[in-house]
């Protein structure tokens, strides 16, 4: 199928950060993988580049999304395509919904422009959209979505884009994702941490370094197929995130519940704050998912990497 007849569809996976959120903003590595859920963008031929948005969105939300979309469209030569979106991801819960949306849109724009949607180019253009949404993101969210594989991501301070190395897992990596409380906007959580970091720089720098080390050790554990060691790294990371002031009672409560249900490790994922997503690493998460759903907890499971069971 050539680029003229290929369907104009693009998928952007949501993501979870297994290790290293926040410290990744300060130049330390983070281990992140794509969820099997995400955002699908569909394009149809039109006179100009256009994003179709539901009427339920506020004026400010529409302006933000349109501005970000047009920024990426211009980089693709403004192809004549109208793009609509379907999302399986909860918004603003730490699962990379804006990055998934950016990646899905960019894939359609590149296809409409007759260009290849290779991961590096998708990531470069999705960063343009993410900068509209988040200002100066580390880039781990949209890079994980564009790469569609488990990565160890690192961005040098002051640089806009980082580098990703694929982390191969000989074993399936399965997580339970639970959503709790009301999540604070990422910008607010990242900003408040930056103020504490500026005030007590030496102490916070030490904690960020510790998290970076734990993320590197976690990547090695994945490659060695040692899921117990990965789980322990996640537990230690949670303690360090808590020390940084990024956890809260609803998040802590879910972390302990997941450990009680047999998780090898459990931690908040994403920006944290008053609520958001908590992940637990399980060999088989389905029983724990069924139990929590019965209790009214919003949760699901996803495989992040490794060979899939038939
Ligand atoms: C958000 O998913 C991850 C953070 O580390 C922010 C970022 O990397 O830009 C909290």
Short structural description:
43% of the residues lie in helices and 23% in strands. The chain is built from 9 helices and 10 strands. The structure holds (R)-mevalonate.
Structure report:
With 310 residues, the chain is α+β, with helices and mostly antiparallel strands. It has two domains: 8-166, 2-Layer Sandwich (Ribosomal Protein S5, domain 2), CATH 3.30.230.10; 173-305, Alpha-Beta Plaits, CATH 3.30.70.890. The protein has helices at 59-75, 97-112, 119-134, 140-147, 186-199, 201-223, 227-243, 249-260, 286-294, and strands spanning 9-19, 30-45, 50-51, 81-87, 151-154, 163-166, 173-180, 265-269, 276-282, 298-305. Strands 1, 2, 3, 4, 5 and 6 form a six-stranded mixed beta sheet that branches. The protein has a four-stranded antiparallel beta sheet with strand order 8-9-7-10. Helix 3 packs antiparallel against helix 4. The longest helix has 23 residues, at 201-223. The structure holds (R)-mevalonate.
Keywords:
2 domains, Ribosomal Protein S5, domain 2, about 45% helix, Alpha-Beta Plaits, single chain, binds (R)-mevalonate, about 300 residues
Topology:
Blueprint: E1 9-19, E2 30-45, E3 50-51, H1 59-75, E4 81-87, H2 97-112, H3 119-134, H4 140-147, E5 151-154, E6 163-166, E7 173-180, H5 186-199, H6 201-223, H7 227-243, H8 249-260, E8 265-269, E9 276-282, H9 286-294, E10 298-305
Parallel strand pairs: 3-4
Antiparallel strand pairs: 1-2, 2-4, 2-5, 5-6, 7-9, 7-10, 8-9
Helix pairs in contact: 1-2, 1-3, 2-3, 2-4, 3-4, 5-6, 6-7
The protein binds (R)-mevalonate.
């Amino acid at each position: 199928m050539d680029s003229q007849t290929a369907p104009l569809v693009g998928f952007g996976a949501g993501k979870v950060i297994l290790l290293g959120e926040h410290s990744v903003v300060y130049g330390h590595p983070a281990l992140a993988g794509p969820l099997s859920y995400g955002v699908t963008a569909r394009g149809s031929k039109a006179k100009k580049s256009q994003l179709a948005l539901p009427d339920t969105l506020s004026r400010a939300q529409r302006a933000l999304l349109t501005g970000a979309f047009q920024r990426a469209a211009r980089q693709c030569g403004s192809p004549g395509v109208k793009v609509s979106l379907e999302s399986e991801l909860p918004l603003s819960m730490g699962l990379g919904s804006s990055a998934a949306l950016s990646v899905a849109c960019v894939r359609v724009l590149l296809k409409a422009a007759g260009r290849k949607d290779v991961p590096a180019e998708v990531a470069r253009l999705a960063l343009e959209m993410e900068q509209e949404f988040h200002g100066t993101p580390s880039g781990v969210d949209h890079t994980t979505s564009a790469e569609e594989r488990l990565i160890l991501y690192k961005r040098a301070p002051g640089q806009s884009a980082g580098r990703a190395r694929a982390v191969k897992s000989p074993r399936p990596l399965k997580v339970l994702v639970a959503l709790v409380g009301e999540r604070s906007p990422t910008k607010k959580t990242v900003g408040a941490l930056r103020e504490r970091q500026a005030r007590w720089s030496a102490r916070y720098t030490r904690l960020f370094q510790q998290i970076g080390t734990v993320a590197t050790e976690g990547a090695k554990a994945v490659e060695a197929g040692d899921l117990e060691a990965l789980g322990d790294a996640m537990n230690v990371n949670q303690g360090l995130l808590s020390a940084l002031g990024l956890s809260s009672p609803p998040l802590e409560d879910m972390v302990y519940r997941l450990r009680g249900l047999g998780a090898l490790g459990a931690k908040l994922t994403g920006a944290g704050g008053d609520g958001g997503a908590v992940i637990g690493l399980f060999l088989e998460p389905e029983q724990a998912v069924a139990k929590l759903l019965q209790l009214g907890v919003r949760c699901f499971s996803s495989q992040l990497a490794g060979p899939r069971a038939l």
